[in-house]
Amino acid sequence: MPELPEVETMVRGLRSRVKRKTITNLWTDEKKIIHHPSFNFFKKSLIGQTIVDVERRGKIIVFKFKPKGFLLVHPKMTGHFLALKEKPSSSYLKKKSAHLMLVLSNDLYLVWTDQRKFSRIEYWPDKTISEIPWLKELGAEPLELSFSEFNRLMDNRRTRVKSWLLDQRFIVGVGNIYANEVLWSAKINPEQPVIELSKDQRKKLLIDLKKILKRAIINRGTSVAEYRDISDQEGHYANYLKVYGRPGKPCPRCGREIIRKMTGSRSTYYCPKCQA
DNA sequence: ACAATATCCTGCGAGC
DNA sequence: TGCTCGCAGGATATTG
């Protein structure tokens, strides 16, 4: 599941290869992942556009075009780009669950693969970045967040702290892996209501969140399922996971057995002793 | 305001 | 071995 560190890794890989390149052709076999505009208009209007940069907003990859326009790509569970120097065969595309391919002017084939087809792609040719509806819904970037702003976003929230961390309207980029890891690191129970967290707990939560996200970026993300970077390589942060995906194993801090429990439809992993 | 549930889709593991 | 079946999971919509 790509979260902030995985998407950041993808964006950094993409940037140097696609900057100042023009989309010369485009292929898809799955029109439904294109949420805006209609597929015919998407294809017609995107061909000929020149990319000036690639950025990340939360878990969304944002391609910026010259002189205007934005292509947004959200990987959801299993989406990722592969950058290929040669035209891939149709059997390769099928094997990789490719659903979109952008052909660039430097003969780079940018293939979007998505096993589960949950990913979402939008192209906004005329809007400024602040006018794009999807981006307007997003909360703060955790790596650029001050404690006072973080604290303000928690004001009067009665929801469980894990749900709050996952809710992209407050802070962006945190998914199930890093939510579990940061709560373990900060010794906070995932079901504790946000409103009940002390100032010290909140401070530690933000500090540990930044620390873990940065460390994960340095390690090029976590490959627990099928996440790969644009060169099809795994990230290494899975080696550092303390609780995520480790039910029944001892807590690295106190030795108590790690518990797995469902909150909503999501697995929550925590240490019942450290995170009482 | 918050919780729970269905939805999308596919691969995988459990059970037989 | 090989089949069916249930289910995870990010975000969203809907209902409670």
Please describe what this structure looks like.
Helix 1 (4-18) packs across helix 8 and helix 7 packs across helix 8. The protein has eight helices and eleven strands. The chain is globular, with a radius of gyration of 20 Å. A hairpin with a 3-residue loop joins strand 4 (60-66) and strand 5 (70-74). It folds into two domains: 4-136, N-terminal domain of MutM-like DNA repair proteins; 142-270, Helicase, Ruva Protein, domain 3. With 276 residues, the protein is α+β, with helices and mostly antiparallel strands. It binds a DNA duplex (16 and 16 nucleotides) through residues 1, 32, 59, 74-78, 97, 114-118, 120, 156-160, 163, 166, 168, 175-176, 225-226, 264-267.
Short description:
Helices cover 28% and strands 23% of the residues. It is an alpha+beta fold and 276 residues long.
Return the string of H and E elements: HEEHEEEEHEEEHHHHHEE
Low-confidence stretches: none
CATH topology of the largest domain: N-terminal domain of MutM-like DNA repair proteins
Radius of gyration: 20 Å
| Mean of pLDDT | 93
Number-wise, the strands total 11
Counting helices, strands and paired strands, the structural category is: alpha+beta
- Identify the CATH homologous superfamily of the largest domain: MutM-like, N-terminal
Q: At CATH's second level, what is the architecture of the largest domain?
A: Alpha-Beta Barrel
What is the strand content? Answer: 15-25%
Largest sheet: 5 strands, mixed
**Strand neighbour order, sheet with most strands:** 2-9-5-4-3
Number of domains: 2
Q: How many distinct helices?
A: 8
| Percent helix range | 25-40%
Rough outline: globular
Distance between the termini: 27 Å
